[in-house]
Amino acid sequence: MSPGVAAKSLADLNLTTEEYEAICDHLRREPNNLELQIYSVMWSEHCSYKSSRVHLRRLPTRGERVLLGPGENAGIVDIGDGLAAVFKIESHNHPSFIEPYQGAATGVGGIIRDIFTMGARPIAILDSLRFGPLEKPQNRSILKGVVSGIAGYGNCMGIPTTGGEIMFDDCYSFNPLVNVLCVGIARHGDIHYGKASGIGNPVIYVGARTGRDGIHGATMASAEFNEDAQAKRPNVQVGDPFMEKLLLEACLEAMKKGLVTGIQDMGAAGLTCSTCEMGARAGTGIELQIELVPLREEGMTPTEIMLSESQERMLLVTERGREQDVGAIFKKWGLESSVVGTVIADPVLRIRNAETVLAEIPNRTLTDDAPRYTRPLSPPACAGGALPSLPHVDPRAALIALLSAPPIASKRWVYEQYDHMVRTNTLVLPGSDATVLRVKGTGRAIALSVDGNGSYTAAQPMAGAMASVAEAARNVACSGARPIAATNCLNFGNPEKPEIMGQFSDVIDGIAEACRALGVPITGGNVSFYNETAGKGIHPTPVIGVLGLLEDATKVVDQWFKAEGDVIYVCGAGAVSLGASEYLRTVHGLSAGVPAAVDLKAEQALIDLCVDAAARGLVRSAHDCSDGGLAVALAESGFAPGGLHGVSVALDALGSENGDFALAAFGEGGARVVASVAPGDAAAFESLAARVGCPARKVGIVGGNALQLAWRGVRVVDVAMAELFEAWSGSFARQLQ
Amino acid sequence: MTKHKVRVIVTLKNGVLDPQGLAIKHVIDSLGKTGFEEVRQGKMFDLVVTAETSQAALAAAQDAAKTVLSNPILETFVCSLVS
Amino acid sequence: MTKHKVRVIVTLKNGVLDPQGLAIKHVIDSLGKTGFEEVRQGKMFDLVVTAETSQAALAAAQDAAKTVLSNPILETFVCSLVS
Amino acid sequence: MKFGIVIFPGSNCDHDAYHVVKHVLGEEAVFLWHGDRDLRGSDCVILPGGFAYGDYLRCGALAKFSPVMQEVADFSAKGGPVIGICNGFQILLECGLLDGAMLRNASLRYVCKHVYVRVETDRTPFTSIITPGRVLKIPIGHMEGNYYAAADTVRALEDEARIVFRYTSPAGEVDPAWNPNGAMAGVAGICNKARNVVGMMPHPERASEAALGCEDGKIIFTSVVRAIAGSCV
Ligand SMILES: Nc1ncnc2c1ncn2[C@@H]1O[C@H](COP(=O)(O)OP(=O)(O)O)[C@@H](O)[C@H]1O
Ligand SMILES: [Mg+2]
């Protein structure tokens, strides 16, 4: 090692001595400072996936509808009529802890760019959030900042935020999670890739000027936080959704006019990442004239320019001679565009200042050939342990407590801050299991849901991961859409700890198995490690987004009961458990036990039933049972936007002979859906259920003003729907005051 | 105890992007008004504070500016007494 | 031609409700900070203007403040040269 | 008839308005670029919702300087029907084509939801076929919809029946509990003295198709089609 590069400065760059030696091997010389900095960001966990890549390979990524799997900016699936859905989920956890508003806002901005980079028009956003308990003022202010940041950015862009989820646990107090999914629609022929093709073609920089924001953001996302997290604050990026809106319109217009050969946004590691990746993907190189990069601040060094994570910037390649045409489109939208480099035959990233070469790096050594580690892993200890015997609680009080618990209570306070109707495609407004968006110009619709359950995954990583895939797919199926593909965001602690890698590996296996069984290949995703502050980590939290296709948009189903006298069925099978349940946590203050095993065969049969029954118009509503179990699902089905519907249900009909009432009413797990069916369709519905091999038990009827649950012939719960609704609907806002 | 008026000016730190300022400058330029080199937007708060002395009022305002009115990650502030 | 710095302060007219100011006062109160009688929020713009004289720069700023930066229905403004 | 829909940088309900005019009503629709001084022969101009110029400075404040707004002003001065929806309403206020200003919602939060508005007058092209008193369910989506005007302005609006829409309960009662943003006098929409320029915060284009759960907004577009057809005969 050169005397100039002390071990200390390597540590500051998050590089090991071995990695430094590998860099020297790649370059066949010692790197200069700029080169070393470039390696440092590109080999950071965030950019290189060095700890996760060996595991991610186990995920299923192929399927008949998959047009493009992981590797590009987003995944692409065929949705018929020559159209494709382009979608992906991303995390912005660390920045959102440091500055909740801007962190969340720029997270939204980043994932939107990933979608329109591919030539797709973004049509919806979903957000999956994790916070510490609302009792702590700091958690409340993080939540408020994050929600208004998402709203501030998405609303201004005119992209509706139509769904999401929010869960709470103390492990997220110093490490909130902000995962955002964006989906767009493109014609097959209009899809664009991040490739620098065509030797001699100009490389054009568009969008905001480069400032000192977010330098080393990727490195920050690749290390644990400690008390001096505050000291890292100068890294904070500020989002400009107005600029991004212009960029979106201008880029789509340039693509439509055939002016774009390759295009990529500047996300983590900014200009560095986009220049080396675009070259590496095309087998070419890029020569960048650093003095041509538009700057916002004076006196920026080449390193600062290369590492800046200023937002709202894109890099594109056009054919030689079309620079003016590109410039004219961006000018029309009030944006600057500057030629900053050229595509070259040498497979390198070459950075020059006028005639001087400042850096020259074989680009694949920054991307595909970056280090990958098979980190030591230890099998996760089964955290949950056995369930203690639980004291008796008043079932009515338990139900009310559950309905007002933050994870279950209505999220209206949140989604009313999001414009969820712009673009006029939202067929099912937020509040139901899945969001459903029509695809204008076709008779179809797509449905999406994001789900994850850190408590389950902490207790049993593999089963927890499978449950998340199953829940997301089930939510989508409830709307009548057939699940066709998935994306995933894997939020974990420090991968250098064997127990964390053990969790990670198990979670991958769980996702892989469930995705395979349910026919939803993974088309993309994101890994966020180092979600630890002062050595304390979060629950392993995989978040799964599933996308479904509804062939006939007029057949869409939502979760709300529609009419008095409709027959209520509990459909599906599979074990139910109080382990790691919301009931245990909210009512008994315990986190113990393990979640129910996931029966993927039963899940598939249930999906078939939901989708087929919707297609035939046999179901009036379908709502999956998840947090809080069957009793909560029944109540939620009754909270219809047009007015409350009571229900009267006998839980014994479920055949849970050897359990007790709490298990039947509040147990979680199992492939279960509450469906309501018009009396005249009951016979047809039952025979369809028999045909697809999915149990469907008639448990009661819709009607009255109360929720009534009977158990062994006794009416155990009888409470006015209005009272339940009050507990559920106002709770979130009350707790945030 | 008397009432004192304190003005708090909150500005973005140097180097922090000011999208609003940029958009406003752009419009001023496009109206043909020349000479505007830079526009940066900040916030202003007028506080009426009851305190024994003007110095105490200023100190109270400074405290509010630090804890409530500004975001130390992005902004800095200055407080001054107004007669 | 030299560069001059002008600060524009835009305030809500008396009598115009200031929901943000009220909410901020509420937060300050709820933190147990006492003595805050009133909080009103305004806007501040720092302009860098190139002009022959500082008076010309001030006039240019005044013009921008009147036509662009403030809304006469709600707001009034004051411009001042900053050294 | 031909609707012209203005695109400002940052408009984002432009395509939604276009969709309703063209595909739901079956009328002709053209986009009008903010930088052009050309209304392309439009019979009615729509200033759509969104965040023109990012809503930076104040909502609508920067959009008023767009060249197209001079044309819109001339068109309206000649009696041409103009409707500003949400951000479009804010722009009309900033331009002075309508009276008043917008403050931030009383909740200080952006709010997107369905609200109820009572139609107060049929003496505008956009309400020409609606019986006054009828309650429409239409969504809103804004951060600054808290209508403000000096007391004498509000009095004039009342006296001249220039409040076109007012937030009410589903039964049509004025009730602060059903006012989503704190707007003075429950104002959800107003018109100018000549009654041909209307601004409204709710989004009728989001409530014009059964598939979206609500069609109450469509009658606002149908009204102007009828009004123009009538004035041509
Ligand atoms: N952060 C959020 N953003 C937008 N919508 C949300 C958010 N959190 C919850 N919702 C909406 O509230 C409803 C209930 O959410 P949740 O209880 O997580 O549903 P489920 O248990 O069926 O997954 C869903 O329609 C969901 O999309
Ligand atoms: Mg659900």
Cα shape of chain D: globular
CATH superfamily of chain B: Phosphoribosylformylglycinamidine synthase subunit PurS
The counted number of beta strands of chain B is 3
State the helix count of chain D. Answer: 5
Number of domains of chain B: 1
Spatial strand sequence of the major β-sheet of chain B: 2-1-3
> Main interface pair?
B-C, 34 and 34 residues
| Range of strand content of chain B | 35-45%
- Radius of gyration of chain D, CA atoms, in whole angstroms: 16 Å
Task: Annotate the secondary structure layout.
The complex is a heterotetramer, with one copy of chain A (737 residues), two copies of chain B (83 residues) and one copy of chain D (233 residues).
Chain A: H1 7-12, H2 17-27, H3 33-42, H4 45-48, H5 53-56, E1 66-68, E2 75-80, E3 83-91, H6 93-98, H7 100-116, E4 121-131, H8 137-157, E5 161-168, E6 177-187, E7 202-207, H9 217-220, H10 241-256, E8 262-265, H11 270-282, E9 285-289, H12 302-307, E10 313-317, H13 323-332, E11 337-344, E12 348-353, E13 356-362, H14 395-404, H15 412-415, E14 426-428, E15 435-438, E16 445-451, H16 454-459, H17 461-478, E17 482-491, H18 498-518, E18 522-528, E19 532-533, E20 536-537, E21 541-550, E22 567-571, H19 582-588, H20 600-615, E23 621-624, H21 629-638, E24 647-650, H22 661-666, E25 673-677, H23 682-692, E26 696-702, E27 706-711, E28 714-720, H24 721-736
Parallel strand pairs in A: 4-5, 9-12, 17-18, 24-27
Antiparallel strand pairs in A: 1-2, 2-3, 3-6, 4-6, 7-10, 7-11, 8-10, 9-11, 12-13, 14-15, 15-16, 16-21, 17-21, 19-20, 22-25, 22-26, 23-25, 24-26, 27-28
Helix pairs in contact in A: 7-8, 7-10, 8-10, 10-13, 14-24, 17-18, 17-20, 20-23
Chain B: E1 2-12, H1 19-30, E2 36-51, H2 54-69, E3 75-82
Antiparallel strand pairs in B: 1-2, 1-3
Chain D: E1 2-7, H1 14-24, E2 28-33, E3 44-47, H2 67-77, E4 82-85, H3 87-95, E5 101-103, E6 111-119, E7 135-142, E8 146-148, H4 151-159, E9 163-168, E10 187-191, E11 197-200, H5 218-232
Parallel strand pairs in D: 1-2, 1-3, 3-4, 4-11
Antiparallel strand pairs in D: 5-8, 6-7, 6-9, 9-10, 10-11
Magnesium ion (MG) binds at residues 433, 475, 624, 626 of chain A.
